[in-house]
Amino acid sequence: MSFIPKNPRPMLQDLVNEEVIVRLKWGQTEYKGRLISVDSYMNIQLSGTEEFIDLKSTGSLGQVLIR
Question: Of the candidates 1, 41, 46, 40, which has an alpha carbon nearest to the alpha carbon of residue 22?
Protein backbone atom coordinates (compact mmCIF):
# COMPACT_ATOMS: atom_id res chain seq x y z
CA MET A 1 0.00 0.00 0.00
CA SER A 2 1.44 3.38 -1.00
CA PHE A 3 0.75 6.75 0.51
CA ILE A 4 -0.66 9.40 -1.81
CA PRO A 5 -0.50 12.89 -0.27
CA LYS A 6 -3.59 15.07 -0.66
CA ASN A 7 -3.77 18.82 -0.78
CA PRO A 8 -6.00 20.01 2.12
CA ARG A 9 -6.66 23.40 0.52
CA PRO A 10 -9.71 22.33 -1.56
CA MET A 11 -11.34 20.89 1.56
CA LEU A 12 -10.68 24.13 3.46
CA GLN A 13 -12.06 26.21 0.57
CA ASP A 14 -15.28 24.18 0.81
CA LEU A 15 -15.57 25.24 4.48
CA VAL A 16 -15.48 29.01 3.81
CA ASN A 17 -18.47 30.68 5.54
CA GLU A 18 -18.92 27.64 7.82
CA GLU A 19 -18.32 27.40 11.58
CA VAL A 20 -15.00 25.65 12.23
CA ILE A 21 -12.75 24.77 15.17
CA VAL A 22 -9.01 25.22 14.69
CA ARG A 23 -6.77 23.37 17.15
CA LEU A 24 -3.18 24.57 17.34
CA LYS A 25 -0.47 21.96 16.96
CA TRP A 26 0.34 22.00 20.70
CA GLY A 27 -3.17 20.70 21.32
CA GLN A 28 -4.35 22.86 24.23
CA THR A 29 -5.62 25.95 22.40
CA GLU A 30 -8.60 25.99 20.05
CA TYR A 31 -10.33 28.75 18.14
CA LYS A 32 -13.99 28.48 17.12
CA GLY A 33 -15.40 30.85 14.52
CA ARG A 34 -16.65 31.35 10.99
CA LEU A 35 -14.00 30.63 8.34
CA ILE A 36 -13.59 33.76 6.21
CA SER A 37 -10.60 32.83 4.08
CA VAL A 38 -7.62 30.51 3.68
CA ASP A 39 -4.59 31.07 1.45
CA SER A 40 -1.95 28.89 -0.18
CA TYR A 41 0.21 29.11 2.97
CA MET A 42 -2.72 27.85 5.08
CA ASN A 43 -3.11 31.18 6.86
CA ILE A 44 -6.66 31.10 8.21
CA GLN A 45 -8.94 34.07 8.86
CA LEU A 46 -11.85 33.61 11.27
CA SER A 47 -14.61 35.99 12.36
CA GLY A 48 -16.71 35.88 15.52
CA THR A 49 -13.89 33.89 17.08
CA GLU A 50 -13.89 32.46 20.59
CA GLU A 51 -10.72 31.10 22.20
CA PHE A 52 -10.64 27.91 24.27
CA ILE A 53 -7.71 26.75 26.39
CA ASP A 54 -8.00 23.29 27.92
CA LEU A 55 -11.67 23.25 26.75
CA LYS A 56 -12.48 26.40 28.79
CA SER A 57 -13.57 29.57 27.03
CA THR A 58 -11.17 32.45 27.59
CA GLY A 59 -13.33 34.99 25.77
CA SER A 60 -14.39 36.38 22.44
CA LEU A 61 -11.70 37.70 20.07
CA GLY A 62 -13.68 38.80 17.02
CA GLN A 63 -11.58 38.70 13.81
CA VAL A 64 -8.37 36.66 13.97
CA LEU A 65 -5.67 35.54 11.56
CA ILE A 66 -3.96 32.25 12.35
CA ARG A 67 -0.59 31.82 10.67
Answer: 46
Ramachandran angles phi, psi of 49, nearest 5°: -85, 140
The pLDDT tens digits for 42-57 are 899 999 999 999 999 9
Cβ atoms of 35 and 11 within 8 Å: the answer is no
With contact defined as beta carbons under 8 Å apart, do 19 and 36 qualify? no
As a whole number of angstroms, the distance between CA 56 and CA 39 comes to: 29
Q: What pLDDT, on a 0 to 100 scale, did the predictor assign at position 1?
A: 65
pTM: 0.83
